[in-house]
Amino acid sequence: MRPSSTNPALRLAGLTKTFGRRPVVDRVDLEVPRGSFFGLVGPNGAGKTTSLSMAVGLLRPDEGRAEIFGIDVWADPTRAKQLIGVLPDGLSMPERLTGPELLRFTGLLRGMEPRQVERRAAELLEILELDGAGRTLVIEYSTGMRKKIGLAAALLHAPRLLVLDEPLEAVDPVSAAAIKVILRRFVRGGGSVVFSSHVMAVVEQLCDHVAVIASGRVVASGPLAAVQAGLSLEERFVSLVGGQIPEVGELAWLSS
Ligand SMILES: Nc1ncnc2c1ncn2[C@@H]1O[C@H](COP(=O)(O)OP(=O)(O)OP(=O)(O)O)[C@@H](O)[C@H]1O
């Protein structure tokens, strides 16, 4: 099975999710072109994680569609999920396994050949500097180590699209550099990446496309330079989202 050659890597159309009475994702339309490095930014609670969860088949939308290379994620999840690697927020994964065991488990679940799993797992553990923790259970991992093993699990089957929720959060600078190298190489090799981040500098450094989401709506989307509109991404973000630095003068008790 080959993904159709004309469809974007990811297309969200009218994606909507309501919790309680409030739509937290409100008719989101988004296109991630194939071969792009796509950044999704937005304030806390904007709906990034909820959108990405619906996009990859982890959370059922109330309305709208999510397509991966033209395949409807909710109508044909098996085909769609073969094409993606996902690093979800919060990362629920089997924790009473070591890193190598977790990758073996993931690879075999994906139907991979055991020797291929071993080979790729060893390479990923080494480049992500997790090989020294070969006997440590994932439950004992630090937050950054969990991100890294989650990323390794997402990469193992060589997907065509990576969907990553804050992949660099809590990751040390050396590992962050390794992750950036891996992701750039993945895109150079024809893969597509969409990731959420709060770090505008990282998005500017890595991405060729970006979307800004606020209160569940996409307020800007397209090639990075077009969205920036001559400003830094941070300035543009603040102007789009309408943020103001809050008054903190009342916290007098913080002064000694
Ligand atoms: N399961 C849930 N039940 C009720 N409300 C939820 C649920 N999941 C998310 N929300 C709400 O939906 C809104 C969007 O949350 P979401 O996690 O998608 O935002 P986000 O943009 O990823 O935020 P952050 O940048 O802080 O991670 C928030 O107001 C959140 O409280």
TrEMBL record:
It is found in: Cell membrane. Keywords: Antibiotic resistance, ATP-binding, Nucleotide-binding, Transport. The keyword Zinc does not apply. Pfam families: ABC_tran. Transmembrane segments: none annotated. Signal peptide: none annotated. The keyword Ubl conjugation does not apply. It is a peripheral membrane protein. GO terms for molecular function: ATP binding. Residues 10-240 form the ABC transporter domain. This is ABC transporter ATP-binding protein. It comes from Nonomuraea spiralis.
